[in-house]
Amino acid sequence: MASEKPILYSYFRSSCSWRVRIALALKGISYDLVPVNLIKDGGQQFSAEFKALNPMQQVPALKIDGITISQSLAIINYLEETHPNPRLLPQDPKKRAQVRMIADHIASGIQPLQNLSVLKQMGEKKMEWAQNCITSGFQALEQILQHTAGLYCVGDEVSVADLCLVPQVANAERFKVDMGPYPTITKINKALLELEAFKISHPSRQPDTPAELRA
Amino acid sequence: MASEKPILYSYFRSSCSWRVRIALALKGISYDLVPVNLIKDGGQQFSAEFKALNPMQQVPALKIDGITISQSLAIINYLEETHPNPRLLPQDPKKRAQVRMIADHIASGIQPLQNLSVLKQMGEKKMEWAQNCITSGFQALEQILQHTAGLYCVGDEVSVADLCLVPQVANAERFKVDMGPYPTITKINKALLELEAFKISHPSRQPDTPAELRA
């Protein structure tokens, strides 16, 4: 049972799914991917079948070791505890706190405000709303990173913070946020996108990526 | 230096501040509280002084061991690692995953959508918006808890999930959400509110609680 391959329920464009795909790639965990299309048929995440699997009706969800976990950071923490190499949290508790602070700032402070279900309710104001949420979050993030960053968000080791950063920058670009005021974010994002794990997990290279968006 | 008392920047009614106050109380960590009034003077969190301390311009923030941490779950995780007793995460990785899934569902999936800064932008629709966010989040939460709960959210030990649950239920009550459909949430909330750490950290008993709201 424990040797069954994990199954990741994912949507190519979901930034939270991408976080988990990066973690799986970095840790070298092979998995099967089941696409859940958040748009088609009014959203496949609302089907009775998917709801039974994940009552939160969101992706990502990971079936692993006989359980199903949802919430991207909960999944990543589970992977970190069960597959500790390479580590995605620094050893020093103070640096770990910085990593978590940045990850939570993105995962609780930015992404939820510009996710699909909120934007659907914004009608015409959708684009402006998303831009405002991201801009205000990035202003704080840029300042924080100026203190914590090395090559990546916290020092020179890839961490959970980086797994949140790259998908959030992709959202910013999709919503045409001017990245000019965020040189540190931009630099780190670029460095991370050079890494193989970030490339193969990219939304443009998923089994459910529509042909016109493929890399 | 390490023996300096931690300073918690808190607002009596902030549900995220309450999460941290519960953790500090459970772990028996004494601290000084500096109130940050999120309403007065257009929001004291926007002052230059506070922004220098926490660029996210939010409470809670905790000054401890020479660093300042923001984001409630990052703070709680730091406390868990530096003051492990009593533990707020179960030993078993699968149960830890359940705890984090529930905590993140509240911290990323519910609270951010009904926090002060979002509601300010909703004008007349404020109440309805908050009710919808909480209702939809609680429907999923009720189902999850039916599988995981014992006395508390996950089994019979108080965990980080419980630190998120109680303040979120208080928000639900403030926004007059009908709790009828959520018997499991209601039962766990009631059991937790009997515990001393949840009582002394309650919004009705803070130094900055206005006289008319005091317990």
UniProtKB/TrEMBL annotation, chains A, B:
The processes (GO biological process) annotated in the record are: glutathione metabolic process; L-phenylalanine catabolic process; L-tyrosine catabolic process
Protein localization: Cytoplasm
Where in this chain does the record put each GST C-terminal domain?
92-211
Give Gene Ontology CC terms: mitochondrion
Entries under InterPro entries matching the protein: Glutathione-S-Trfase_C-like, Glutathione-S-Trfase_C_sf, Glutathione_S-Trfase, Glutathione_S-Trfase_N, GST_C, GST_Zeta, GST_Zeta_C, GST_Zeta_N
Give all residue intervals belonging to the GST N-terminal domain: 4-87
Catalyzed reaction equations: RX + glutathione = an S-substituted glutathione + a halide anion + H(+); 4-maleylacetoacetate = 4-fumarylacetoacetate
GO molecular function terms here? Answer: glutathione transferase activity; maleylacetoacetate isomerase activity
Q: Which cofactor does it need?
A: glutathione
Q: Which keywords does the record carry?
A: Cytoplasm, Isomerase, Phenylalanine catabolism, Transferase, Tyrosine catabolism
Q: Which PROSITE patterns match?
A: GST_CTER (PS50405), GST_NTER (PS50404)
- What's one Pfam family here? GST_C_3
Tell me the superkingdom of the source: Eukaryota
Q: Which family does it belong to?
A: Belongs to the GST superfamily. Zeta family.
PANTHER family noted in UniProt = MALEYLACETOACETATE ISOMERASE
The protein, known as: Maleylacetoacetate isomerase
Origin species: Ficedula albicollis (Collared flycatcher)
